[in-house]
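re: ur question from yesterday

yeah so i grabbed the chain u mentioned. its 322 aa long if i counted rite. heres the sequnce exactly as i have it in my notes:
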Amino acid sequence: MAKDTKKDPQNTENKILELEERIDELQNSTTQDDSSVQIKELESQKTSLQKEMYSNLAPYEIVKVARHPLRPPVSDYLKMMVDDFIELHGDKNYGDDKAITTGFGTIGSKKALIIGQHKGKTTKERIDCNFGMPNPEGYRKALQKMKLAEKFHLPIITLIDTPGANPDIGAEERGQAHAIAINIAEMSKLRTPIICIVIGEGGSGGALGIGVGDKFSILEYAYCSVISPEGCAAILWKSKDNAAEAATALKLTAKELLKLGIVDEVIPEPIGAAHSNPEEMAETLKETIVRYIEELQTVPLDKLVDKRYKKYRKFGSFLGGK
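ran it thru and got these C-alpha cells back, copy pasting raw so excuse formatting
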C-alpha cells in the first residue's frame, strides 16, 4: 500500500477527499442513528491514509504540498494567532507592495513586528499579490518597519512563503537585487531578536530578503531552495520534465535542511499537513514563536548580533581535500 501511495499520492488524496465528503454528509444527517459510529470509522480511515501518504512523500511531492492551493497563507495566520494587528503600508518611495504584509501585533503575550509574504487566496488576491513574488518596494517596506521595531526594542517575526522575488523588467529597473542585498546586510546587524520561519515556499533570494535571523526554522512540509526544481531542471536538463530529479538533488526538504544545518528546527504539521487543520497549525506556530522570543530576549544584544552574523557566514562552508 505504501508503495502505491508513493507512486500516486494524488489518488490517495482523492480518496481522502471522498472520505471527508462522506463524513460531512453523515454529520449533517438526522436520519441515521448509528452515524456517530460510521463517522468514527471513516475518520480513522482518513487518518490512516493521511499518515501513510505523508510518510512517503518524495522531495518534489513535498514541493507540491508547499504549493497546495488550500495551504494557509500569511493572512490566515495573522487572523488565527495575532491579536490587535495594525498593518503598516508603503515604502515611502514608490508604493505599497501587497506581496509583503507588515504590521505590529501581539502573539501570546509578546508584542512584535510581523512581516509575511502573501500569495493571496482568491484569484483577485493572487493577482494583486503577484502570486507572492515581492517587488523591491516590498523589501524596502519590510526593512523600514524592521528599523522601527528595532527603535522600540520589539522582536521581528518573518513568515516566508514565496516562489521567489519578482523577476520582471520593472522590478529589475527599480533595483530588485540591490533591495534584497541591502535587506540581508541590514538584517544581519539589527539590534533586536529576529525569527524567520518558512511556512510554504522559500524561494531563492526572494526568501532571503526577509530571511536573516537569530532563528531560522521551517514547517514540516515547506521547502527552501536557491532555485525552484523547475528552474533547476530547465538549466541542467533543458526541460522541466526533470523537476522531480532536480528537487531530490537540491536537498530542499525540511529534513534535509536540518541535516545540513541550514534550519534550526523543523516545526511539525498536523496529520495531513497544514491545510488539513489550519487552526492546529496556527497554535503550534504561535507556541513556537513565543518560545523563541522568550529564549532570544535573554541573550545580550551584542552577543545576539554576533551569533547571527557568524551563523550566516558559515553557511556553505565545507572541508576540502587535497
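noticed a couple things. The chain has two domains: 2-56, 64-313. also The longest strand covers residues 194-203.
anyway ttyl
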